[in-house]
């Protein structure tokens, strides 16, 4: 089987730039990715592009060709939409296309323009990731859904808001040196506990921000990398995807995410590793509780134990398995359609020693990226390994 | 959205809300006993296509809940409000808890389905009130 390498990556700064179109954001990310990769645009055989709410925020559908044009790529292009896991699913399909010999060079990316909608508008747009008839019309919001999961978790396994606050504090700390991050500011436990409530128990500082931004990676076959003498030391060695019932109330366990567990098990098996081999993880912490569910689903923590991982220092930068050294969605920001690809970009940099936080994982060889859609009705997991 | 468009119903769902309003809420059940909600032709658990309407029990039990302070625009004037997931026989439902103070909402609270109305939009909303 052919191997898949990350030849280059590019991110825009994530943040509040309501006037910037997604085509402009993606163009910027793609320019950086091409410069970083040394790959010529004319070698690109496909663009796979993730976006979630373009119809609502920009009155724009049919993003594929628009974004190929923005990136200066003459190749067929397809948009992937799986809510917040949109570009994770794009990465997965790119990996499979390269492995099966269909393509040698694929541009994978994503972008989201959100802040032009305002808080209420973005809340409304994000809610369409849930079941419109049976959840949204009853008043459930996206933070509301994760709040229900947090309450269910506390009831089932224990824990309290302060445990979650440690996750927010950790991820803000990690983002201090990440110049792409939306928040490069430290926060304290009390800031989290005293923040205005969004959906109890979650408050403002338990929630990722509303963000604009884009991400792009150039993925190539090992053959292409060798032939073109590319500096591409990181490979995507495992891919997995899981699915679940759409509505949270239809899940057997409200405080677990089996779709992510399935995706993780598939990705680990694909890469020939197990959870104990994972040195560093980028996970989908759209809310603090989501990081707990993610690290348990990835088997980095036992079920019921993930709640204490940040508080007890197991997932902090100097812990055994640092989680979200980029700052995560919480502090780096969450331009929805860009998030899955941005995790691959951050992880590749962390493993190859090019990330400002690489010093914390100097001996790391294996990383995992976890991207989740909705209340984890969709999930993708990718394993990245740096070659000797 | 024009008046004409907003008058278009969602077949299956609006009938269910009508039925619930008359105290006749139901679930769909397949021969293997899997419960689901309409509109639905196929059991999501096992693929069975002979789904039958079964009455929901008169009361259900709140399994988890949250109080939402930052709503979507459709619930702007309703916030803060409690959203709960409650078990009614073969299915769980997500609904807004009405008819009680937010402080009294708790897990295990026995509730019945009550179709309420959004203070913001006047639209009908699936709700729960203490039994």
TrEMBL record, chain A:
Keyword Repressor included in the entry's annotation: no
UniProt keyword annotations, A-Z: Isoprene biosynthesis
Record-annotated Thiolase N-terminal domain positions: 5-222
Any single biological process term in GO: isoprenoid biosynthetic process
Residues annotated as domain Thiolase C-terminal: 240-385
Keyword Ligase appears in the UniProt entry: no
Source taxon at top rank: Archaea
PANTHER family xrefs: ACETYL-COA C-ACETYLTRANSFERASE, ACETYL-COA C-ACYLTRANSFERASE
NCBIfam families in the record: PRK06064.1
Record's protein name: 3-ketoacyl-CoA thiolase
Organism: Natronococcus pandeyae
From TrEMBL, chain B:
UniProt xrefs under InterPro entries: ChsH2_C, NA-bd_OB-fold, Thioester_dehydratase-like
Classification via Gene3D superfamilies: 6.10.30.10
One Pfam family from the record: OB_ChsH2_C
ChsH2 C-terminal OB-fold domain segment(s): 54-115
PANTHER family the UniProt entry points to: BLR3430 PROTEIN
Protein name as it appears in the record: Nucleic acid-binding protein
Organism whose genome encodes this protein: Natronococcus pandeyae
Lineage of origin: Archaea, Methanobacteriati, Methanobacteriota, Stenosarchaea group, Halobacteria
